[in-house]
Write a structure and sequence with these properties.
CATH topology of the domain at 203-307: Leucine-rich Repeat Variant
Structural class: mainly alpha
Mean pLDDT: 94
Largest sheet: none
Radius of gyration: 22 Å
Oligomer: single chain
Order of helices and strands: HHHHHHHHHHHHHHHHHH
Shape: globular
CATH architecture of the domain at 203-307: Alpha Horseshoe
Length: about 300
């Protein structure tokens, strides 16, 4: 079936969206995108949201499907829900051309949810910058824009907490001070983001705070502290993480399993093998995946040392 036929099918809003028609939208040429854009304009807002949601889901399930051209077009949609979904759809898109639009959204979009997801998306570029994979000019643009948003008294807490997480890889004195203030806040969400940011700095000085929060009465804080310990990667945190494999909160248990998989080592491997006998199938599967990660890492290191 030709693209025109698929577009006609999509335009018939009383019909459900078929997988085959949506696959046809992958990797469209410029001319095909122009035809898609014409069809898109005539769709109702509800159909646009429905279509974009399906494309985001399909792209997550199948890495060979490429809807980036559609997502990029939708960044300029008048519908905030469409803009939000478009940013989510571009999560794996690391082309530098996306930096400018994300910075513009962060500074100017009227919808706080859209600004929030743009901050999250900028976080991956902050990591690239910290790894030296962006130019100094691009890194400065990202860092300065994130710090401006963080310092803005007019910005809402939800956006500022996501900005804090995003800016953390730059790990400047200013960033560290914002992390400290957020950690000392009475706002639980800000404290969660502070822990998340601690891990992303790669700074060992934060480890004592993270280990303390592994024993927090708040499951949300235990979850973030566990995940942050995994990012810092020190085996010294393993004895503190292992008890969380029996945590009352399933999400904390899963975070502990994943953290041990990322950190590795003999103690982590033994603890994960015990999880293979868990009564919870989710924990069992997470443990299998974590053990696979450790095996891949150990094989890689073994190969490196043989060379």
């Amino acid at each position: 079936m030709s693209l025109s036929r698929y577009l006609q099918e999509i335009a018939k809003e009383e019909r459900p969206l078929r997988y085959g028609a949506l696959v046809a939208l992958s990797s469209m040429s410029r001319a095909e995108m122009e035809r898609f854009a014409e069809t898109w304009q005539d769709l109702s807002p509800q159909r646009q949201r429905q279509l974009l949601s399906r494309l985001v889901e399909m792209a997550e399930e199948n890495v060979e499907l490429d809807y980036n051209s559609i997502f990029l077009m939708c960044l300029h949609s008048p519908d905030p829900e469409v803009r939000e979904k478009a940013i989510l759809g571009l999560w794996e898109f690391e082309d530098r051309s996306l930096i400018g639009p994300l910075l513009e959204i962060l500074s100017s979009d009227v919808n706080p949810r859209v600004r929030s997801v743009s901050a999250i998306a900028l976080g991956k570029f902050a990591i690239l910058a910290a790894e030296g994979k962006l130019s100094a000019r691009e890194a400065d643009r990202i860092k300065n824009a994130l710090l401006d948003a963080l310092k803005s008294e007019r910005e809402c807490t939800e956006v500022r907490r996501r900005v804090l997480e995003a800016v953390a890889p730059f790990n400047t004195h200013t960033v560290q001070e914002f992390i400290r203030r957020s950690y000392e806040s009475d706002d639980l969400n800000l404290r969660c983001s502070a822990l998340h940011a601690m891990g992303r700095t790669g700074e060992p000085r934060w480890l004592r705070y993270l280990l303390r929060e592994l024993r927090s009465p708040s499951p949300a804080l235990r979850f973030e502290a566990t995940s942050a310990c995994a990012e810092l990667g020190g085996e010294s945190s393993v004895p503190h993480i292992v008890p969380l494999l029996d945590d009352d909160d399933l999400q904390v248990q899963i975070a502990a399993v994943r953290a041990l998989g990322e950190i590795g080592g003999v103690m982590a491997t033994r603890a994960l093998r015990r999880c293979l006998h868990s009564d919870d199938l989710t924990v069992q599967e997470a443990a299998r995946q974590a053990l696979d990660e450790i095996e891949v890492l150990e094989n890689s290191l073994s190969f490196h040392y043989r060379i």
